[in-house]
Design brief:
Distance between the termini: 18 Å
Order of helices and strands: HHHHHHHHH
Number of domains: 1
Strand content: under 5%
CATH superfamily: AhpD-like
Helix content: 55-70%
Structural class: mainly alpha
Largest sheet: none
CATH class: Mainly Alpha
Number of helices: 9
């Protein structure tokens, strides 16, 4: 079990509610699971959370069978590697909401509508960004022990192993 969940189990009543909300966000809206994972990777990277960035890279790569080289390029180069216009629009909006929610314009919302989202999808996307931000803050604030492949934090944050630092689990998410 990922270390994040051991941290969350310190407040089991909330863990159950939080996972239920995340499950609803991931399953009941207009965004596909790959779209959600792209958002999770780039929002978590923007928020400086190696733990969550690696977790969502693992889901996109291993869980959703997206090519590892593509996921590596995504964390290195960001939205520029995405060739799908809808996904680019979703990611750019998510990154904007993450850093400047007050700066969202009618044109931004119109762009999401042009990409096929209804009001439900817009609200889902904003909640997805918020959900990832909450996970990011928890793992950053409590310095959750990293237990994913080191390559993800190396690609996303130029991380290098140094003596005295714990290595990640380089077997997690490997086929």
């Amino acid at each position: 079990m990922p270390n994040h969940f051991y941290v969350e189990m310190n407040f089991p009543e909330f863990l159950k509610a939080k996972l239920g909300a995340t499950q609803t966000l991931w399953r009941a809206g207009e965004l596909s699971l790959p779209e959600i994972q792209h958002v999770g990777i780039l929002v978590s990277q923007a928020n400086g959370c190696p733990y969550c960035t690696a977790a969502f890279c693992t889901i996109l790569n291993y869980g959703l069978e997206t090519a590892e080289d593509y996921v590596q390029r995504l964390v290195r180069e960001g939205v520029d590697v995405v060739d799908d216009t809808r996904l680019q629009t979703i990611i750019n909006f998510a990154l904007k909401v993450n850093v400047d929610a007050k700066g969202v314009t009618d044109e931004d919302i119109d762009g999401l509508r042009s990409a096929g989202l209804t009001d439900k999808g817009v609200v889902q996307l904003i909640h997805v960004v918020s959900d990832f931000g909450a996970y990011n803050r928890l793992n950053i604030a409590l310095d959750t022990d990293y237990d994913y492949r080191d390559m993800w934090r190396a690609f996303a944050f130029d991380w290098e192993h140094k003596p005295g630092l714990a290595k990640g689990d380089d077997t997690r998410g490997v086929r």
